[in-house]
Amino acid sequence: MNRIILGIVLLFLLIFPVFNLPYLNTFLIILFMYILLAESYDILGGYTGYINMGHIAFFGIGAYTFGLLWNTGLSLYLSFLAGTLAAVVFAILISFPLFRLQGAYFSLAAFALVKLMEHLTLNLSSITHGSDGLKVLEGNRMIPMYYLSLLLVVAVVVVSFLITRSRFGLAMASVREEEEIAFDFGVPVQRIKTTAMVISASFAGLMGSFYTWYTIFINPSMVFGTEMALMPIAMAMLGGSGVIIGPVIGAVFLLIVEETLWTRFAYLHTAAYGLVILLVGLFMPGGLVRLRPVRRFLIRVGLFKEL
Amino acid sequence: MEIAIQLVIAGILQGGLYALAAFGLSLIFGVSNVLNLAHGEFLMLGGLFCFLIFSATGLNPFLIGLMILPFAFFLGYIFDRFLMRPLAGKKEHIRLMSSILVTLGAALCIGDVTSFLAGAEEKGVDYSMPSFFWGDLYISYLRLLAMVMIAGLTVGIHYYLKKTYTGRALRATTQNIRGAMLVGVDTSRIRSVTFGIGSMLASIAGVFYVVLLSISPDMGLTVTIKYLCIIVLGGLGSLIGSLVGGVILGLTESIVSYYNPHWGQTAAFLILVLILLIRPKGLFGK
Amino acid sequence: MLEINGIEVFYGDYQALFGVEATVASAEIVSLLGANGAGKTTTINTICGFIRPRAGTIHFDNTIIHKMSANKIVEKGLIQIPEERMLFPDMTVLENLQMGAYLGRARKKLADSMDWVYGLFPILQKRQSQLAGTLSGGEQQMVAIGRGLMSLPRLLILDEPSLGLAPMLVAEVFQVIQKINQEGVAILLVEQNVHQSLKISNRAYLLENGSIAMEGRASELLDRDYIRESYLGI
Predict the structure, then answer these.
(1) How many angstroms separate the CA of residue C86 from the nearest CA in chain B?
(2) How do the domains of chain A map onto residue ranges?
(3) Which among B93, B201, C158, C208 counts the fewest CB atoms within 10 Å?
(4) CB contact under 8 A, B276 and A109
(5) Residue C234: per-residue pLDDT
(6) B186 vs C88: CB contact, 8 Å cut-off?
(7) B125 in a domain, yes or no?
(8) Beta carbons within 10 angstroms of residue A4's beta carbon
(9) How many domains does chain B have?
């Protein structure tokens, strides 16, 4: 059942550009980006329980690294690779100090890193052009970007699926539930957390590179801004953190809500958007997918894979 | 030398202001384990109402600040009562996530409604007091007054927490919630009261903001993040921690900004990250 | 004074208590005995309002308390001294004791009860400005009992008061419990130290697998073969 559904959805998405609907195509690219960010956030946040409010830093670092290197004339593929690697290296570097922190300390210190990156990119204007932003070579990249981001979304979902079925995933869950006990039982806690962060960062970094390549122009607030940082996390939590399909549903839901509100209401769309997030948090703790009817449906079609 | 002293004074004032708002946030976190992302909105609302009443009546803005305190308390109280209390019984991890969603949603909502109703532009109260020279030092009465008030408030909070029964109950709830219940503390009420106090402190800080600096409806999340950083820097739940954390950040900003205005904020975050690397639980955390 | 009628308690689908019935009369010492996991702590947490029973009633002084919040139950004079002590680690001994007298009724008699507590545990007076978190285990237990007494209990529930204490201190704790009882405070004692607690109790209940397996006068239970074999190891 689940294979049929996923197959149909995937097939539809694969042939979608044929219909030549630029508006929806753009919408889907943005949607893929958010799904990827939410899902890759959840590899760390949902499975190990470390709420990484600094996830967007990986995205931004990927975006800037790609942009800067590609502008120097480096080949496209090497630039993508460099963007990803930069995010991974950053993840490894910060994982050692950050994972000494727990709970809210971890979340906030990670968030402070995003703000630090935002201010650094603003101020190191000789390299990053500061608030003027960074421009890269123009070109019409709608279709390749569509497929690249779709591919990446599929990849992150598959990776999440493989994680939930592996011993590694089990170890992550043990960190989330009872870190100290897991440590006493010989789970290499630090290595598990660092690995999770590296996987999570590599996807975000690559997506950051794609994003620069696609939008042609980035500035610090586009990639490191407060709302940009919080949205993927809100999406993952809203959809259902720790369930593979949760962040996907959260991203689809929130982006459709946002798009609808923006086109229907001239004023107060942010307020309405905030209200939706608030109500979900208040009445659906655990996210949309854990609502009883939704959950039952997802279990029946075999899409409720939880760690 | 005069410049150095001026900078230090400015930095301490800025830091005291930070500490004031940050401490409310820290209390809330201590008592209810909630990262209140809507805290900055309370600050903004305090400043905004001060601005509106000042524009209409021309009263002394600090007096207005005093008048709106009960309303600020009430706002914080009902915020907890209706938005936070339903989450109280949930599992730790779920509660942390739900509270992030609820307070983030509330922050977006309050900010946008405010900018719709009151206009999105920056607002400031144009209220001045004479200045004087003390030797070569240029001192503004307004800043001096603000400093004295902040110091007074800090001492006041300290005694409130040490000496009053409610203040002690608040600390008791932070240290061992089950223990607090066992001596008869109504911990749900204490949580709401703490939100009320947090909102009051934020609104006072908002009044200082609108008089000394300026406010705008979309400032909320930005300042909240800054205060969250300060309480992490100082150690969650510690009054002295918030104060020292605030002053360190304020001093860094004012001194670095003097040499290069753009780098003030950057340096502040850099210091924050560096301190956390050395002391993962903050300067005064346990 | 305390009447527990057929309470059933569940954790999710797992049933922890099966129709537990027990009473404590005023000025009595009653022991609640049983092995680890028999449901002792669940029983007292239900009495104190931390857990809601799915069925059954609990009355204290003829008022229903199983629907009250924990702090309201404390207000009625039913005080628990938990096994984990649950002190306020960053407060001084004095502040911890003062917190015991948080509620209005106890606040008025603060000075008298302070004298009472310092009379029972003179060492606490010497330690009064020390932070509770820095005390030894035995001293922490004294603060916990002292804090409970500051609330002016009419019924005091003690959960494993002798756990983890040196033998000398255990004897002292049992003496103190008797002294408290002589002041007219009813006591419900939850203990694994069966012999000692039966010796100071009037009556006792034995919990096994979530229900009362045996009850009676403490002196009788001490003589029963089953208790002697399974719990006293004689």
Answers:
(1) 5
(2) 2-300
(3) C208
(4) yes
(5) 61
(6) no
(7) yes
(8) 10
(9) 1
| C167, part of any domain | no
| A227 interaction partners in chain B (CB closer than 8 Å) | 221
Query: Is the minimum CB–CB distance between B187 and chain C shorter than 8 Å?
Result: yes
CATH of the domain at B234: 1.10.3470
Q: What is the pLDDT, as a whole number, of residue A307?
A: 73
pLDDT tens-digit profile of B163-213? Answer: 999 999 999 999 999 999 999 999 999 999 999 999 999 999 999 999 988
DSSP-derived 3-state class of residue C54: coil
**pLDDT band, residue B93 (cuts 50/70/90):** confident
In angstroms, rounded to a whole number, what is the distance separating the alpha carbons of residues B263 and B271? 12
Contact list in A for residue B95 (CB cut-off 8 A) is 285
Q: Which residue of B has its CA nearest to C103?
A: B184
C92 near B CB under 8 A: no
Q: Is there a contact between A105 and B29 if contact means CB atoms under 8 Å apart?
A: no
Enumerate residue ranges in chain A where pLDDT < 50. none
What CATH number is attached to the domain comprising C38? 3.40.50.300
- Residue B207, domain extent: 2-278
From chain B, the residues in CB contact with C151 under 8 A are 183-184
Contact call for residues C129 and C92 (beta carbons, < 8 A): yes
Whether residues B35 and A104 touch (CB distance < 8 A) is answered with yes
C115 within some domain: no
Residue of A nearest to B108 (CA): A274
Spatial separation of the C-alpha atoms in residues C120 and B57, rounded to whole Å:
63
- For chain C, report the end-to-end CA distance as a whole number of angstroms: 34
DSSP B214-249: -B-GGGHHHHHHHHHHHHHHH-TT-HHHHHHHHHHH
pLDDT averaged over every residue in chain B? 88
Q: How close B32 comes to chain C (CA, Å)? A: 16
Domains in chain C, number: 1
Tell me which residue of B62, B94, B93, B85 sits closest to B203, measured CA to CA. Answer: B62
CATH architecture of A2-300: Orthogonal Bundle (1.10)
Other chains touching C, judged by 3 or more CB pairs under 8 Å: B
Give residue C42's pLDDT: 92
ipTM, 2 dp: 0.90
Interval B133-158: pLDDT, tens: 777 777 788 888 888 988 999 899 99
User: Are B171 and C71 a contacting pair at CB < 8 A?
Assistant: no
Which residues span the domain enclosing C35? 1-77+155-161+187-234
Show the beta-strand stretches assigned E in chain B.
131-134, 137-140
| Chain B, nearest residue to C81 by Cα | B182
Task: Place C165 in a pLDDT band, splitting at 50, 70 and 90.
Answer: confident
**Chain A partners of B86 at a C-beta cutoff of 8 Å?**
282
Best of B100, B265, B274, B279 to mutate (most A CBs within 10 Å, chain A): B100
> Would C120 be classed as within a structural domain?
no
> Is B98–A282 a contact, with Cβ atoms under 8 angstroms apart?
yes
Q: Is residue B284 part of a domain?
A: no
Q: SS3 string of chain A?
A: CHHHHHHHHHHHHHHHHHHCCHHHHHHHHHHHHHHHHHHHHHHHHCCCCCCCCCCHHHHHHHHHHHHHHHHCCCCHHHHHHHHHHHHHHHHHHHHHHHCCCCHHHHHHHHHHHHHHHHHHHHHCHHHHCHHHCEECCCCCCHHHHHHHHHHHHHHHHHHHHHHHHCHHHHHHHHHHHHHHHHHHCCCCHHHHHHHHHHHHHHHHHHHHHHHHHHHCEECHHHHHCHHHHHHHHHHHHHHCCCECHHHHHHHHHHHHHHHHHHHHCCCCHHHHHHHHHHHHHHHCCCCHHHCHHHHHHHHHCCCCCEC
| Euclidean distance between CA atoms C134 and C140, whole angstroms | 9
Query: Which residues of A fall within a CB distance of 8 Å from B98?
Result: 237, 281-282, 285
User: How many B×C Cβ pairs under 8 Å?
Assistant: 67
